């Protein structure tokens, strides 16, 4: 019986380590974002994504994290300088626009675009504080100036 309990404890520790490792991998991939990719704006992308700056929210139907983001962040984002700088554009993962940005696997995925090119992405939604910190860094790369919400 002691052996079975020890095995269960090992299994839980192993599962926990795999989960932490998986989340770390997702964070690293998200931090790299489009670091090496430069997706060209083309006719396959909707006009609203081809010019200016936009925050593309890629989601799946029934995504609970997307619903949580809608409740906790969306109203404030839309009224914020960040939201005016990079207006929100929502797409289902199956939408043709999303195919132009390879590697979208998780829902939600937030992709900051400037003139149809990916500047960076945030994968998942663990909470409002994480979202604002991460999206702020990506928007700076896109030309956002926090002091006045204008493009560089």
Which terms would index this structure?
45% helix; Glutaredoxin; 152 residues; alpha+beta; two-stranded antiparallel ribbon
Structure write-up:
The protein has 152 residues and is an alpha+beta fold. The chain has a single domain (33-151), classed as Glutaredoxin (3-Layer(aba) Sandwich), CATH 3.40.30.10. Helix content is 45%, strand content 19%. It has helices at 2-32, 47-50, 64-72, 74-79, 81-85, 128-141; strands at 53-59, 88-92, 109-114, 117-123, 144-145, 150-151. The strands form 2 sheets. Strands 2-1-3-4 form a 4-stranded mixed sheet. The longest helix is centred in the first third of the chain and has 31 residues, at 2-32. 24% of the residues are buried.
């Amino acid at each position: 019986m002691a052996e079975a309990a020890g095995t269960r404890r090992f299994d839980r520790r192993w599962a926990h380590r795999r989960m932490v490792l998986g989340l770390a991998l997702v964070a690293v991939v998200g931090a790299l974002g489009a670091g090496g990719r430069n997706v060209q704006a083309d006719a396959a992308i909707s006009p609203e994504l081809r010019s200016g700056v936009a925050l593309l929210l890629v989601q799946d139907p029934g995504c609970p994290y997307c619903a949580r983001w809608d409740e906790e962040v969306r109203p404030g984002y839309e009224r914020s300088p960040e939201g005016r700088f990079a207006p929100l554009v929502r797409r289902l993962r199956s939408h043709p626009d999303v195919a132009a940005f390879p590697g979208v696997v998780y829902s939600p995925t937030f992709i900051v675009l400037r003139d149809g090119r990916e500047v960076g992405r945030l994968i998942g939604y663990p909470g409002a504080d994480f979202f604002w910190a991460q999206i702020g860094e990506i928007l700076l790369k896109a030309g956002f100036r926090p002091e006045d919400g204008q493009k560089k």
